[in-house]
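B., you asked whether I could sanity-check this one before it goes into the benchmark set. Here's the sequence:
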Amino acid sequence: MRFSYAAAAATTLISTVLADVSITSFANSLKLSSSFDPIKAAYWTGLPHHRRTPFSVSPDGTKGYLAYLDSTYSSVVVQEVDLTTFAAVGTAYKTTGYEATGLVAQNDGFALLATVNATGTTDLPTDNEPIVSLIRVKDGAEAWRTPLNGPGVHASAGLTATPDANGDLVYSEASGLYGAYFVVTAYTGDAAGHFGDSIQYVTESTGALTQETGSSTFGCSHNTGIGIESSDAPPFATVCAEDQGDIWLNTDTQYMSGRKIANENTTNGVSGEPMGGMSGSYSNLARFGNSSNYIFGWQSRGALDLTQNTWMGDGYTQCSPRWLNHNVAIATMNSKDTLTGEEASSVVGAAEGDLQVNWITYSSTEDHQNVHTAAISSDVALITWETLTNPDCQPVPLGCTGTYAGTSFQLVDNTGAKIGSTVNSTEVFVSGDIANVGTGKVCWPYVSMMWDLSQPLDSATPVTQMSFACASTGGDSTTTASSSAAASVTAASTAAAVAASSSAAVVSSASTAAAVVASSSAAAVSSASTAAAVAASSSVAVVSSAPTVAAVSTSSVPAVVSVSASSDAGAASDIAQASSSSEVIASSTQAAVATSSSSALFHPSTFSRVARPTIAPTVAPTTGDDDECDA
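And here's what the prediction gave me:
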């Protein structure tokens, strides 16, 4: 088994503080009413992604809600969450559904975006594919349910279904509108058999699907990268990453046009997972408070040697990748439809097509993925990503396998400049929406698990507990979170510790520390080099061992750990940029892609299955007839 789960009976609270960002986690704080499979495979590689768990906080800041797909893959569950302890509150809401793809908390309940069965007897989707519905729950009861595609919805433009609802849901209190952006496949009309995306608006007061400026029934081709964020009036701010070679700020166009954010190496049917791929496209585009400024984050291979995209025509380009691995990139906007800096180049023949990119990492030896961003305040945002060392990256433009080296957290200001140092954690992941909780703090859900990105994986052992983590600004070199039982661990260099007791327990070390507490009174074990901890429950056993420290708490009460380190610890993996002459481009190289999944977002007949190839340093895209794949 490649994934193991912490089976601690107690909530474990860990706080890591470096530079100006503080990361605090509440491990296994939320007991789920239904079990949850935390893995969803990428549809063209089968590589594991975190299955999304939407999370949202009400406008008055008093209620939090978590949504997830239960392990039967046929029910979506929404659970209220206490925003102090991150424990469950009340009885969960449950509905038949196949993906939880967006959630907005309200003061009296929530609105859930989910894939569900179409209703009626005519014009149903082929192969019983689901549709997307927006479900409003008030005071524990369903108030309205509005289909956003399927039978009778925009029939004149062609009916669509949604086998996989990569996308997101946002709400604008100023306009009283929900905005949903999601992947579709058409089953009637001119686009039948093709994949695109749709932007729909729903009125909060009535649940009516409304045609607004910015509504779209069929937009970017094979868009597996979607970003949407609320604005005071429609159209809301939107970003799409399509399979023709670009990422667009398409607020004004709802199509593969607008302000070009980036050139990316893609191929027909595959847009390269810049915003997370399957179960992705959440917490990638964020608004700085109530200002007109936005920030967008994605994973990029860079762009070299721009060529004409003959399929799309004038103004469209394709590129070769600068690396096969990914780096973390961000862009800022001074309005919902205007970039702060320059657009990406569309000059055919340009040697470099990524000179406008603001790189958070810049490495040719590590892969960076699962990129997310959230605004902590009106002028500070958090960027997060996962790092793989020794990556094996597939071309045109598939994913990377490698050794998981942790999740990083970096603060930036509203111009995109870094603030302080990068914090790295191997304990905390980001697998759900990042939401503002209180002032100067954002929080998100994740599953406490051993994360393995070394090979494909379709699913994992279902879990019955959810963890939460929070990021806040402060500037203190150390902090101590509090719970009903106080415990702390500090270290000057590398430390990981777990402690639990009905009274205070403290462990400290000047170099490397490990602590395991397994009773109602404090007990600790430390090691100067290597530590391992084993916990077991009736259904789960966990064994972890690493050159640094792994720790598991099995106490019945929370433990608190704060870690401080020197400023160079957890630093970003940035390296000096190599000259473009050192990059190796293998032109006219293409890899075939196939899928056996019935929910693939490209037409299987277009590709043939091949063995995973030996990797060349970089590859160039090809163009060709796209009658099977493109919108």
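One thing to flag: The first strand starts at residue 12 and ends at 18. Otherwise nothing jumped out at me.
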